[in-house]
Amino acid sequence: MSIPRSEYPRPQFIRKNWENLNGQWQFDYDDANKGLLEKWYLQKEFTKEITVPFSYQSELSGIHDTDFHDLVWYKRSFDIPKEWDQKRLILHFGAVDYRASVWVNGKYIGSHEGGHVPFQLEVTEAVDVGKNELVVRVEDVTQDLDQPRGKQYWKEKSEGIFYTRTTGIWQTVWLEMVESSYIEKVKMTPDIDKDEIMMEYVVNGGSDSQFLEVEISFEGSLVAFESLKLINNKGARSIFLNDFHVHDEGRLWSPEHPNLYDVVFRLKDDSTVLDEVSSYFGMRKVSVENGKVMLNNRPYYMKLILDQGYFPDGLLTPPSDDAIRKDVELTKEMGFNGARKHQKIEDPRYLYWTDKLGLLVWGEMANSYTYTEDAVRRITDEWQKAIERDYNHPSIVAWVPINESWGVPKLLADKRQQDHTLAMYYLTKSLDSTRLVISNDGWEHTKSDICTIHDYESNKAVLKERYSTVEKIMEATPGSRLIYVPGHHYDGVPIQVSEFGGIAYKKSEWEGWGYSGASDDQDFANRYYNVVSALLESPLVQGFCYTQLTDVEQEINGLLTYDRKPKIDLEIIKEINEGRSIKRFSSEVK
Predict the structure, then answer these.
(1) How far is CA 127 from the centre of its chain?
(2) How far apart are CA 584 and CA 580, in angstroms?
(3) Fewer CB in 10 Å around end: N or C, the chain?
(4) Torsion of CA 558, 563, 569, 571, to 10 degrees
(5) DSSP alpha helices (H): ranges in 489-578?
(6) CA distance 497 to 268
(7) Parallel/antiparallel/unpaired status of strands 272-281 and 261-269
(8) Claim: this prediction has a pTM higher than 0.85
(9) C-alpha count within 13 angstroms, C-beta hemisphere, residue 528
C-alpha cells in the first residue's frame, strides 16, 4: 500500500536519512478517560484503524466521524534498520491537535501542546534495532474556547463561518537519523540592499573541532562558499552573494519572478561529514516607505485571495502534495499575486510551493475565542513557534496574530485586551523585523503596519465613495465596527481591504450562503467586477483580499467549488483583477 503524503514534509530543511510513518495506525477513542489508568501505552489492542495524517473526522482517515471524542489514542510499529544502530534518532510530528503525549516501547518520551506547530522528540534511548512500537495519546477538548482553534467549530455540526473540527495527528509523522552532532536549525535573513544573506545557526552536540560549511548556488552555479568554525554550538555570518545586485531583477524573489538560491549546510569534523542539510532562500524585501507598501524597494499592489486551507476529503489536511500545488497554481491563474491563509498555520509544503511558484502569503494564527490568562499563554507560545518554523520562507510577507478581535471580544472597553494586541504586534516584531505585522486584521486596530479593513458592501457606488478619501474611510464602520480603537488613530500607514466580496454562487451539490448572491455566470462576473473595480479605482486602497478561494462546507462564496472546479472562466477573473475588463461588465448591479 502506498504511503499517504509520502513527500518530504520539511522542504526547507532536507536530510536524506528519514522514514515516513504515515499510513495505517491502530486507533481508539477514550471517551471515559481511562487510557492512562489502564496503561494503554503498554499492551492495549485498539479497536479501529486510521490513516495518518488525516484526522478521524475526515473521509480520508477511513473513519469519518464528527461526533465529540476529546481523547484519542494511536499506535503503530516501526522498524529501525541495523545501519541506524548507535545513531541518534529524532521523532517528528508536523502537527497534532491539540495536546499530545508520546510513548515508545512503553517508555514515556514527552508531550507537546499546540495544535498547529511541529514538535520533535529524541527517541534514541527508547528504541532497538528491529521492531518498535509507538503510541500517541491526544487530548483535544471540543468546547475549550481558550484553545487556539481557528475555524474549528465547538459544536458537532458546522455552521456559519465555522467548519468541522480536526482532532489528533493531521500532518506527517516521520523518523530521522542523525549523528551525535547535527545541525539543529538555521535562520536565513536576506538583505537585498547589501547583497547579503545572514545565516544564523545552532548545532546540537557540537564541539570546537567542528566547522560548518555553507555552499550557495543559483541555477546550478556556485555563488558563495564559507567555512565557519564552530564556537559554543551556534553562530552567525553575513555572506556576500557575488552574483547578486539589487538592480538586477533576475536574482530578486517576487511573485512574478520567484528566484530561489539553493544552499547546502555541512557539519564537518576534519574531512568527515557529520550532517548535511539542503535548503533554499529568496532575496526579497518587504517594507513600507512614505505610506506605500514596497516589495523589493518598489511600490507593490497586493491582490490576495482569502484561503481557508480546507479540503472536502481531508479537512485541514490536503489530500496530496499535488493538491497543494494545484491551489497555488489556480490562485495565480486567476491573477492574484498572494493569499491570506485564514485562521490556519499552513502545511510547510504549501509554503514550499508558494516560494517556488511565486505567491505572497500572509501568515495568520489560529485564534481562540475568549480572553483569559491561559488563552494569552497558549496563543503567545504557539505563535512564537509558528514564526520560527516559517521564518525562512520568502513568500511570507506579513504576519497576522489576531483576526477580527477573536480572542479579544471586549477590545474596545478592556485596556488589557488592547494591550494584548499591542503585545502581539511587538512580540512579532521582536522575533521578525523583516515583515509587516497586522495586530488585529479587519477592524479595531491599535498598532499595525497596514490599516486593514473587512468590508462586504456589494454596491460599487457605495464602495467608491467610501474609499475616496482618508476621512471617509476612517468614518466608515463596515460590520458596525470602528477601524481604530479609541485612543489609537490612523497614522498614514497603507490601507488595504483585507476581506471583501464573498459572493455566493451555487455551482455544485453543496448548499450554503455568502455575503451577497449571484443568479448566473454573467451576474456573478458582474458582481465580482463591481467590488474589485471599486477598489482598483480607489486613489487610496493599496491592496485587497477577496473572500474566498473555494467554497467550504456550508459557505458557497468561493471562486472555485469545494472540489476546486472554477465557477466561471478563470480568464474572466484574471481580466477583472488586472483591470482589463471595463467594457465587458455592467457597472451597476443592485
Answers:
(1) 33
(2) 9
(3) C
(4) 80
(5) 521-536, 570-577
(6) 50
(7) antiparallel
(8) yes
(9) 32
